[in-house]
Amino acid sequence: MDRPQIVLAFILGYMLLCIVVGLWAMRRTRSTHDFFMAGSRLGFLVTSVAIFSSTMSGWGFVGGPGLVYKIGAGTFWMIVSTGLGFCGMFYLLGKRLRLMAEVTSPVSLPDVVTARYDSRSTGFLTAIAILLGVLGYLGTQILAMAMVLQSVLADVASIGLLPLGVCMAISCAVLVFYCVTGGIIASVYTDLVQGIIMVVAALLVVSATVASVDGGLEGMTRTILFDDPEAMNPWGTRGIVGCLSWYFVFVFGVAGQPHLITKLMMTRKPDDARVMLPMSVVGFLLTALLWISIGLCMRTLVLQGGHAPLGEPDQASPEFLKTYAHPVLAGVVFAGLMAAIMSTADSFLNIGAAAIVHDIPRALRGRSLNNELLWARVTTVVIAAVASGVALASGKMVALLGAVGWSVFSGAIVPTVAIGFNWKRATPLACNLAILTSLVLNVGLQVFSVTLPHLFYNGAIALLASLTVFYVVSICSAPPKLDPDIETAMDL
User: Fold this and answer.
1) Do the Cβ atoms of 108 and 414 come closer than 8 Å?
2) Mean pLDDT, consecutive 10-residue segments, the chain of 492 residues?
3) Cα 128 to Cα 110: distance, rounded to the nearest angstrom
4) pLDDT of amino acid 399
5) Buried b (16+ CB within 10 A) or exposed e, 244-268
6) pTM
7) How far is CA 40 from CA 46, 274, 305, in A?
8) Closest CA to 156 of 304, 262, 3
9) Distance between CA 86 and CA 53 in Å, rounded?
10) CB atoms < 10 A from the CB of 454, how many?
11) Which residues are CB-contacts of 64 (< 8 A; sequence separation ≥ 6)?
12) What angle do CA 239, 245, 249 make, to 5 degrees?
């Protein structure tokens, strides 16, 4: 069996595992609460791994190396700030969200938001923000998944290069089956396996990248510095303002990612957060080594003439694994990569379906749809199809498409949840205006392709504006009256 066939065998083996796990999880998914919240009975190990692996996903394993290849060391700020963002997320919400879930027995994050503010309109706008962010961020995962599969299949002589849309349809078929049958339970339990694979694979890939370039890391740095000194300085090609705006969004934005913070409500005990924090941070930083090493290595190999220039920066990971890694290691990493993408995509499909069949109907008519579990599964298929269309039409790099979704989530949910669940003075009106401000700025700046001075990141200005509106309106409004149970949960 040659190299391409070995890699393909690992990917097919993982896809088969997804189908098996989906069927197993279907037997444990008896209600909407099981489908969306895993019955709130997850252990700290499963939840910790699910959190850091969902963060890396296709955004980190495909988009991250592509960004390093394209613009250099400035992207390292995303890694540093996301690691710090985990600390902020657990400090603000690790225990608080679990206590809120104990009081409200939610099916989704907007359920808790509605209970906290006693406002159906705030829950509705939160659900809308989640749905819009899901389409961008889920598109990232589906695009990354299709690109990986296309790259692998292109080297198999009997198959050859398939159109990206065909690869997207194949991978989405497995993803949708996995999501529809098992819901969030299927996602978090495969996260446990693939998270461990990701950590081991990242460490092995670092060794492979160092061995692929004469002089190792020093040789990479020297080559890139000679070609473009700016690419290897601490601010990269984006400059100090651009990098610090990234730093701001990614530090604070972690606490606004619904696919991460929703998992904080699924643990058995509120005190599990103490153990989950270090496990999540260490896991994320170890897997991020793949992001850094492959990006630097592929840029160096291209500059040295050892590899042809990449057609797309996002091809950095697939090309390195296919060409320079041992075939077994490449197969393991490709399988881990597909696992990371699929589990994260499952999380997005899950929260998107919850927004459509549960949150929005409850906000508009006071109750969710009849036969909610069936409609959740149907809606999952529809969202996957729409997100695939968004990904194909966008023409964006994986990392940049993901950053748009990240920004939409951050601007809407950081004020409403991360701050509002810790500050009794926050009001429903302040939340509503902050969410609308974030959506208008994020979508408007993206649609009109606005470039801010000094490469200041658009998502950062949206987050700053939503936080300012949230704070000013809350201070100027009358203090809200809290439900006694909610107030008790906020005091603990």
Assistant:
1) no
2) 80 79 71 62 81 77 84 84 93 91 88 95 94 79 80 80 84 79 70 77 87 89 90 83 88 91 86 89 89 92 91 86 84 77 79 90 85 85 84 58 74 95 96 95 81 89 96 95 91 84
3) 10
4) 46
5) bbbbbbbbbbbbbbbbbbbbbbbbe
6) 0.87
7) 12, 17, 53
8) 3
9) 13
10) 12
11) 75, 78, 79, 288, 290, 291, 292, 295, 399
12) 145
Q: Which two tokens stand for residue 413?
A: 């949910």
Residue ranges making up the domain that contains 232: 3-491
Residue 188 contacts residue 194 (beta carbons within 8 Å): no
**Cα–Cα distance, 204 to 188 (Å, whole number):** 24
Question: Cβ contacts of residue 375 below 8 Å, gap of 6+?
Answer: 357, 369
Furthest C-alpha separation in the chain: 71
Helices (H), 118-257: 120-154, 164-212, 216-227, 239-253
Amino acid at 13: G
Overall domain count for the chain:
1
Which one, of 488, 64, 52, 39, lies nearest residue 283 by Cα?
Answer: 52
As beta bridge partners, residue 267 has 42
**148 in Cβ contact with 399 (< 8 Å):** no
pLDDT of residue 281: 92
CA dist., res. 48 & res. 39, Å (int): 17
Q: Indicate which CATH number applies to the domain containing 302.
A: 1.20.1730.10
